[in-house]
Structures are given as structure tokens and as C-alpha cells.
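Review form for a predicted model. The reviewer records the input and the model, then writes brief findings.
Reviewer: anonymous (R2)
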Amino acid sequence: MGETALPAIHTAYYFDTAEGTMSDLTPSALWDEMSVAVLHSVAALLDESSMQQVRLVCKAWKQPATLATKTLRPRMTGSLGLQWHNLHQLSKAFPACRVLDLRSYKVPSDSAQHLSNTFLTTVLLSNVEADPEASRSLQELQEYMMSAEIHNPVLSFVVDIYHLPTFLSRAPFTDAECRTMMQYPASAQVVTLHLGCMPVSVTQTGLGYIAQLTTLAELSVTCCEDIDDDHMTLLSALSNLVELRLGPLKCCTSEGLTNGLSTLTQLQRLYLTDAIHIRDETIAHVLCSLSASLQALSMANCPLLTDESMPYLCMPRLSTLFFSNSSFITLQGVQHLASQSSSLVDLDFRGCTCLSVRDRMKLQQVMLSQRTANL
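Model under review:
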């Protein structure tokens, strides 16, 4: 059976201001009659997900979408799954592709030889797979990148590192793992580091290694009991951070938090837990530095904060705010914040004992009125 003809493009019009009339543009045409060059120009404007869908529409769309594809995330399993020796053919089939996303693969070091003679410039890697038990060590990632560099010297690597609850049976994340990351090739950029479960045993030495990963965009250290002012000073060097999660911070003083956070002017999301020494003046100093970028702020179990800190939270881009276990924050302070901030969408003061259920209902009404007024 032959292919069903695709519907014709609707006739386009423009308004002729000189004559005051509507005029036809070019005649209508079938999509499959349009040149590959035209469809290629359209495909080049699409994101990766849309590009994959376009390739499945028909043969006429598949070719230009294929030619415009710049990032590949190959299928993981099945008969169409990635075969390492086919990387050469993959590169020829997608000549514009420069980025290969292997973050869901266990990439053996001997597979790196197949990256030679390709058009690729960047490989995305992670130590996490679909099957956590098969996830690779940081040392294995290092071996793969070093081997790949030998076969294709122009390659660079973007790396995500996770130590999550699914890995509880594995060895603890220690200073040795931090040192291994420092030994990655110069072409490797570690952009994500999540240390989100026990056991994590990173000392000041390990955090010193982490502080040298200046390409980090996301950092989460939420199970390290010993974070103190010295650690915060080290982390202040990570000026490219977009997201930061830290806790517990029971050993950090207000001065340490101010010194550590005030330099991170690119932060969009900040989550702090158990900062039991943080005070209103600390909020004032830190948020003054972050006011242009911060979009989400969480202060869990920060008991010394009061209504005095509320005016500093009126930031132009802050849309999500969470406070818990702050006994000195009252309805009056929160209402002032809600009425003055035009960007807040999600406001949660769970566990603030001075706020009753009725107070929270009033707060919701204030925020609803504020959003309505901004429409």
C-alpha cells in the first residue's frame, strides 16, 4: 500500500497596509513536496524531544530532522539498542550531531575506541544507570574518559555524580572519591554532585577537593554532620553553582554562612537544613547578594529567624519559599511578605508554631488576591 498523502499547508496571508487588502503569499504545497533544505531549517529550531517526534512522522520529515539533530541519546535496550561498534555509522547518519548522551549506559573503557573518527565533541556521562546495582564507580568513569581521549583528543566530557539512597549497600563516599574526581582529565567538567544519603564521610580535605570543581552547577551535601565555617569558606569558591543543598548545618555560625553563600551570585535554588545559628542579619547579608538570581529558598529548622527577616525575602524572582520550625515568625510578618512580593507562587510555613490553621487560610487569601491583582 502506498503512503497516505499528507495534508496541504494552509494558505498564508499578509495584510497590505498600503492597499488595505488581504493578499495571498506563496501557493499552498504538500509537506512532502517541500525541499530538504526548508525542512532542515525548521528542524534546526526544535528541541531534542520535538526532534525525536518529528523523525517518526514520515520519510519526508525524517531526513531533515536527522540532518539537524545535534544531540543523540541512543536507546538503552532491545534490538535497536546501542552497539558500541556502530558509533561510526551513527555519526555518519547524524552528521550534525556533536553531543552523545551516555548517562544511562554502563560504558566499558574498551568501548572508547569507537569514538575515534566521529564528529562528536562532547560526551555526557554519569555514574548512575537504570539498574543501580550495575552503576559504575568514579574510577571506572576516569578510565573510560582517559581511554576516549586517546582515541579522540578533541572530546570533552560533562559528568554527573550521584550517591543516593539506592546505594546504601555500597562503600561510603569519602575523601578518596573526592580525590578521584580531581584526577579526571582536564577536558572533564563535573557539573552535578549529589551526596544525598548515608554513608558519607567527607572531611575538610574532601570538601577542599570539591571546592576545586569550579564547573559545578548543582551541589547537594545533605548527610555530612560536620559542615562548619571552614567548609563554608571552601565552598564559597564555587561561583557557578545554580543549585545548592546543604545540611545539617548545626556547626555553622551566622558568619560562616554569610562568608560561604554571599559569593554564590548565580544561585537560583538554595536549600538549607538545621541552620540553628542563622539569624535575621545573616539573611539580610546573604539575600542581598542573591536577590537578582534566587528563585527558590528553603530554610528547614532554622529556629532563630523572626519577622525581621521577611522584608529581605521580597526578591524579584523568588517564587518558592519554605520555612519550618521557626517559632518567632508570625502571621503579621508573613502577610507583609505575601502582600509585597509579586513573584511568590508557593509559600509554605509548615511547622511555624505561631501560625494557626486559620492564619494559613488568611495567608492563602492574601496570596490569591496578590496573584489576581498581578494578572
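Findings: The mean pLDDT is 78.
Further findings: The chain has twelve helices and 15 strands.
Recommendation: see findings above.
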